[in-house]
From TrEMBL:
Pfam families: Self-incomp_S1
GO BP, sorted A to Z: rejection of self pollen
Name of the protein: S-protein homolog
Entry's family note: Belongs to the plant self-incompatibility (S1) protein family.
Location in or out of the cell: Secreted
Cleavable signal peptide: 1-19
GO cellular component: extracellular region
Source lineage: Eukaryota, Viridiplantae, Streptophyta, Embryophyta, Tracheophyta
Source organism superkingdom: Eukaryota
Entries under InterPro entries matching the protein: Self-incomp_S1 (IPR010264)
Keywords of the record: Secreted, Self-incompatibility, Signal
Length: 144
């Protein structure tokens, strides 16, 4: 009798959790990160992006091309992706998705917990697209 009651209780907890819209959104929530070469001078953009668990490898992105990947958000999302990027005019390591960074999340989100993080690398710096206002924000300058 006892194990059976525990299973009923567990099922009840799961049903209650799933009935909360916020939980459903975070289970289904998907994010795509775009790494866009926005250079005008035909330069190649080099990018090495990683999270704690995934190494997305070394990428060479040509002018007007992009590299992208999609992942799911989860309950208690702690996902963090960062990239090491360089070209002939500079170098920088920065976070491209951070579940704890409101600036990144609000700019990327287009409803619920879905979103697109569109990072555009220009000669004069690094820009993030705001999905709600449809404009690029300057986020970083290139380092040496
Ligand atoms: C992702 O990048 C590829 C090229 O690498 C491109 O063909 C594709 O359209 C991109 N996907 C999205 C959702 O933008
Ligand atoms: C988006 O990024 C800009 C630049 O960092 C920041 O000022 C702004 O608060 C962020 N969020 C929104 C919703 O625009």
């Amino acid at each position: 009798m006892k194990p059976f009651m525990n299973i009923s209780l567990l099922l009840l907890v799961i049903v209650i959790c799933l009935s909360q819209p916020l939980v459903i959104h975070s289970i289904l929530g998907k994010y795509t990160v775009h790494i866009i070469n926005g250079f005008q001078n035909n330069e190649v953009l080099h990018a090495h992006c990683k999270s704690k668990d995934d190494d997305l490898g070394f990428r060479e992105i040509s002018m007007n091309e992009e590299f992208n990947w999609t992942f799911r958000r989860n309950i208690g999302d702690t996902t963090l992706f960062f990239c090491n990027m360089w070209w002939s005019g500079g170098h920088l390591v920065f976070n491209v998705y951070d579940a704890k960074d409101d600036t990144i999340l609000t700019n990327c989100s287009y409803g619920g917990s879905r979103g697109e993080c569109m990072w555009r690398m220009n000669e004069d710096g690094i820009y993030l697209y705001n999905m709600e206002y449809h404009e690029y924000h300057s986020m970083h300058k290139w380092g040496p």
